[in-house]
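Weekly modeling sync, notes
Attendees: S.R. (lead), two postdocs, one rotation student

Agenda item 3: backlog of single-chain predictions. S.R. asked that every request posted to the team notebook include the full sequence so nobody has to chase files. The rotation student volunteered to paste the first one in as an example of the format we agreed on. Action items at the bottom.

Example entry:
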Amino acid sequence: MRSAFDIIGPIMIGPSSSHTAGAVRLGLMARAILAEEVKSADIKLHGSFAQTYKGHGTDRALIAGIMGFKPDDERIRDALQLATKNNIEYNFTKVNLEDAHPNTAIINLTGVSGRTVSLQGASIGGGNILVSHVNDFEVNLSGKYPSLIVVHRDRPGVINGVTAALALYNINIAYMKVSRKERGAQALMNIEVDNPVPDEAIGVCSTLSGVEKVLRIDAI
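Predicted structure, as returned to the notebook:
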């Protein structure tokens, strides 16, 4: 069954749910994964995003999300000027990607501490998004649910430990994907859950052998 949100679309600043609302949510997701204030953003645009980003305000929407603005925030219209005022550097370039959705962006962020993150995601219609890569790991993040990103070593028992910790706090897993660069090397779990993950569960996951980092992301 389709929800009213799917039919009517999101509450947003226009002109386009795909080019504006979805772009804001991609920026919000990149900011959430960086987990600190943004110093600079290098953004690569593919397909329709690349062709119409200025006219449809996709550039302003992405920068607005990176600054933490929601899709209905009236400041989206002035996002580029506000970024400059707040000493956030940004750059847009066009790229051609194979087998990518036409509304795809690659967002490379650097935070105030020097931390970096790279995210590839698409605005797939109606303000919905799908993030497919984080730091060269394959993921599947919609932003519709609270999520965890767990960076860990690829070794037996780590996945079981994380899922058991979530079960201990009655957290139901809605979706889970695990990817690795090579056998025994660094790996990444992205987990979407039905209810917010408490600090206590994050703490348990963080202390598991083989786990390097646990990042909690609220629904956006």
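Discussion: group reviewed the output briefly. The chain has seven helices and ten strands.
Action items: rotation student to repeat for the remaining queue; S.R. to check formatting next week.
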